[in-house]
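Exercise: predict the fold of this chain.
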Amino acid sequence: MLLVTGFGRFPARRSIRPKNRRRARRRLRRLARLGWRIERRVLPVEWARLPAELARLEAELAPDATLHLGLAARRRGVTVEARAHNRRRPLSCDAAGRRAGDPRIDAAAPFTRPATVDVARMTVALSHAAPTAVSREAGAYLCNLALWGRLAAPPAALSSSSMFRRPCPAVRSARRGCAPRPDLADLIRAAKAACLTLIAAAR
């Protein structure tokens, strides 16, 4: 079973239009033809609720692979996170207006945790759909916290997990001298490629 997660609406960010969400869901349903069950879940954009929701999903679904979809608005292309960091931005508010508190996620844990997928292979697969690069800087906000929480699972329960972060989709026109950002169709194709790569790795 493949678990695909995305976040609810981030503060000050536009949400994806319903028709575009339906388009993405149709692409995911086609993956079920490969014999895999695809579960989609929306994660809370809240420091306190996110870890508990991830733990609940792990206990309820026990996924064979997990793809977290996140936002990196300032990046020009898609990025695949190579590691999660044991840190939070204590002054950054979540969707409920609350701050993180302690800058460390877990004081007893290492500073980083590596992703459990072949990041280079994932990057090559996604690059056929959209400009893609490896990122070793997952930040210190909720995308990083989600990946950290998944990678913190006990070794016996740790499955292939990846964080795919997208820029804000853009039209094809771009400012002179700047490469255009991928549009929504590119991002949907990249997400499908990420799912296929995780399924292949988990078989």
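Check your answer against the key: Strands lie at 2-7, 38-43, 65-71, 78-81, 83-85, 112-114, 132-135, 160-166.
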